Amino acid sequence: MSELEYQEGRTELDALGQVALINRLTDDFAPVNESTVKGVGDDCAVVGQGKTKTLVTTNTLAEGIHFDMMYTPLKHLGYKAVAVSLSNIAAMNGTPRQITVSVAVSNRYSVEALEELYAGIRLCCQRYDVDLVGGDMNSSRSGMVLTVTAIGEVDEEKIAYRSGAKLHDLICVSGDLGSAYSGLLILEREKVTYQANPNFQPDLDSYDYVLERFLKPEPRMDVVHKLAKSGVVPTSMIDVSKGLASELLHICKASDCGCEVYEERLPIDYQTTRVCSEMSQNMLPVSNALNGGGDYELLFTVNQKDYDKVKDMEGIHIIGHITEQGSPVVMVTPQNSTITLTAQGFRD
Amino acid sequence: MSELEYQEGRTELDALGQVALINRLTDDFAPVNESTVKGVGDDCAVVGQGKTKTLVTTNTLAEGIHFDMMYTPLKHLGYKAVAVSLSNIAAMNGTPRQITVSVAVSNRYSVEALEELYAGIRLCCQRYDVDLVGGDMNSSRSGMVLTVTAIGEVDEEKIAYRSGAKLHDLICVSGDLGSAYSGLLILEREKVTYQANPNFQPDLDSYDYVLERFLKPEPRMDVVHKLAKSGVVPTSMIDVSKGLASELLHICKASDCGCEVYEERLPIDYQTTRVCSEMSQNMLPVSNALNGGGDYELLFTVNQKDYDKVKDMEGIHIIGHITEQGSPVVMVTPQNSTITLTAQGFRD
Fold first, then answer.
1. Per residue in A285-339, pLDDT tens?
2. Residue ranges of the domains in chain B?
3. What architecture is the B162-340 domain classified under in CATH?
4. How far is B221 from chain A (nearest CA, A)?
5. What ipTM goes with this model?
6. Closest CA–CA distance from residue A59 to any residue of chain B (Å)
7. Beta strands at B131-139 and B95-105: parallel, antiparallel or unpaired
8. How many CB atoms lie within 10 A of CB B21?
9. Shortest CA distance to B117 belongs to which of A40, A139, A22?
10. CATH fold of B36-157, please?
């Protein structure tokens, strides 16, 4: 009776990356509604008929895949689930207004545990002036799956798609890169130690920054506000969820261009460097920045005319520029050699 | 390290129903955005600043809870996941325009299996002129969790909330009730037989109607269109996802009223009656209608002035009327006794 397992011609999910799989599955969905401005393929869908467009984005966090209950406080998890979707609204240069939250949860969780989760959801909503307007609560066979849909607004002239980068545009990124992944490395290390010896008390105090970066990322709405205040509309934008390399590849593919970024320009916090040196002699901080993911910083391009406006913007780093159609996506090292970037780390 | 299991003061999830739990978790989320017209507590959230409002609704189907892969063809599952969310848009008297789909899925599933799922999603989108505009694809530790968010539009003057029913309004329902649950009963029966004897070939041909009602429900957009064409704006509306009793209770609670429905007026298909008689002497078709759920028909109230417009509307049944504040929700039997309705069947 089951159609589940095909004996012949079975293609394993691992054979395709997430983006390739989504593309394969949704390729022949042609929009029919006038109000569908942008469908699959950017940080958000863009819908609506007026000058102010509605942004919609949906993100799922699944236990055992995106989070490990061993080291994820539920309040942080609730906060992060919201933050991740708000980050997608920010990446379209928009303002989040509402969310819906769907929770599928096994009876291993108590009502009190869900209250902790919702305390985190509420905190993030309050911090970013977002209203929880719906969703549902369901049983699951095992673990927890959290899906947050965020709704936002943006003036149609200010939408920053991935596809708008132009030759010679400057490439900018906010904050620092690789710290969230460094936090994850620490948590995984302590977990292994704890599993070997349950009496072990992990000492996490000195890792506050990288841990918070992983467990409780912030959507960079402050960057969206700063850009608006300076009158800068990014020509393209994306949030750094999978690592800089992956996001640069997305922008260059969507914009049909190449790019060069300079290794020495990549913003890497000293604590990321410290964690890397603790972990292994061979672990390079720049690898965490390129392939680590989870930073939820904003990566965007601006026209060169906006150079003066962005060069002194606090927390914004100009890391490179867009090159012509057909060029590769490369990082230039301090020794002036070039490394062609591919998406590693998280499969993509 | 884990905050998961509270030793003291632990309240099991089963101790509360879904609605009570959602209310407890979301009670203190006060909307702050002007564009949030209606938050948690109806079939959809209502957002936006113009005369045309945006409707948003999110629904999850989880393997082992909402569907059983033993007897759920993936194409039907995809169709149903979309249909359930579109039904919520219909229940606000709105028109669906876009959906996002989030899938969390274990590697037990193949790419081909997901293609089947998306074939069903596409079919439902095409049938109801809805665009798939986003979502994500994630791994899960076990089974499949599908979350669909639907976005719709509605003229603000035509929104049908649950809360608008007024004294003496007529209560109407579309289609027939209890058939979806009868389909589920058949599938469960055949599953048990199959598990006892895997060589057994289930004979499902004679149950086509009830099986389709369960496996592939339709959002009643045709009813929304008929009402619009006749110039009828329901005073309240809800879709029948959990059973007539539960939905009547929702409308009466939200509208602060009671109601009377007449048992002999409840639309019950003869195949529902046949399944009940096959199953057990004691199984009453009316119980399936009241408590079975899954029919996704529309339950709505209209002002008495609209009686002439609805009385001959094809597939619409007038089953009772609204009674005054403080009155119970009752069903009147053919013998003229009254039964006070409570939500049974699915926990609510």
1. 999 999 999 999 999 999 999 999 999 999 999 999 999 999 999 999 999 999 9
2. 36-157, 162-340
3. Alpha-Beta Complex (3.90)
4. 16
5. 0.89
6. 6
7. parallel
8. 19
9. A22
10. 60s Ribosomal Protein L30; Chain: A; (3.30.1330)
